[in-house]
Amino acid sequence: MSLLRAITTVGGFTMMSRVLGFVRDILIAAALGAGPVADAFFVAFKLPNLFRRLFAEGAFSAAFVPIFAGMVETDGKEAARIFAEQTLSILFVALIAITIGAEITMPWLMRLVAPGFLDEPDKFALTVQLTQITFPYLLFISLVSLLSGVLNSFGRFAAAAATPILLNLCLIGAILVLTPLLPTPGHALAWGVAAAGIVQFVWLYVALVREGVWLRLPRPRITNNVRTLCRRALPVAIGAGIYQINLVIDMIIASFLPSGSISYLFYADRVTQLPLGVVGVAVGTALLPMLSRQVRADNPAAALHSQNRALEFALLLTLPAAVALFIIADPIVTVLFQRGAFGPDQASATAAALAAYALGLPAYVLVKSLAPGFFAREDTKTPVKISVAAMAVNIVLSLILMGPFLHVGLAMAMAASAWLNAASLGFVLWRRGHLVLDDRLKGRATRVLLSAIIMGVALYGGADCLSPQLAGGVMAKATALVILVVGGAVVFGGCAQLTGAARLADLRAFMRPAA
To answer: Which of 111-115, 301-305, 391-395 is the most confident on average?
Structure first.
């Protein structure tokens, strides 16, 4: 499978998930608003997601896939399957222990995650209760991450990429069906999260069986390969998960800010997750197994080509997205979320955070695109050192900026730390000779930036012309936003063609299978 075909497969399903995610978030905003119940649920939802993205998607994708894909390349499918079973048994035992420990210690764990809630006992108690409901999600979704790694290594990206759709469907169903039956909408959503983990696991295991791969649960044994995996997983959990760690740091600090601050950051991050997920996650997911096979096959030229094309594709989509989110943050948030319990003040506060997050969007995606360059070569230590430095910058800047800018300062700090992370990863890869920017990438990156700036000017002017509609009713606002989005896409696409930033003919070359 070619790199672009793999990226578009993952990105296409991720786009479907993000669209459903917006429907979900619109319903959540209308039901919860940005008050204490919303803050409590978002903490309850974020905690198991943090562990999933750090230790499951982050550590096991980045540490497991290179080993598994390499074994498929050199030792055959059966040897790789046995390794996957050994890993599954160890992961299952570890997850059971983590889940039980977290359920028992949740009141104390929450003092670390949301210490600012202690001043509001009811809000703190609700957060503990909701997190105890959602936390078993970690068990099932982490197993899903391992199954995804197996499928991705075989070049089967569709089933794994579709699993987030099931989460969104479960949460939408919980809001519509369970809310009248439970004390708060937060309780309904928490049970929806727990159910989603089971549904996603069953879905992906069936997909794996259809590929002819049966994974049993043998007695846990620490083999040499499993030992190597565990040794690499811990540093990768930090290195690959810096974005999530920064979000949690923001959540801890935001718990000391006025009520609603966590919700503003959550809603803003949800909008940012559309391009980040569709492009960043898709590029990283598709690139890692491909680079791993090329490195294992001792084909550095192919690896450099894959790295350059991944960066080119990432910049082509994220630079215009970042400019658009920054320029029209207010209309986006207003149309998506301003209804029910989510009023104009909450929309304005969320839009300010979205604009700040947008400044770091290209960096978030570049990190996803550059990290596989280390992981494919089985280097997990260097990204850790870089990510720790970036995280320290984020903490310092957050503490400095939270005073004058409140929650927006936290988003600004995170954007700055993401740029530091991306620049450092790129510099180290370049020094090692693993990242040599070819003439095509250098030329097109400049043209993409120019096209995005022209599009931004057009969006600014368009928003000014449509200001009466953007201040009108729901349909008028939605229509104006559609005009801005479509118009911006047309302007960027036209400029990209004229400047040579991207050409339709290049898609055929992109779609050719990689070496």
So the answer is: 391-395
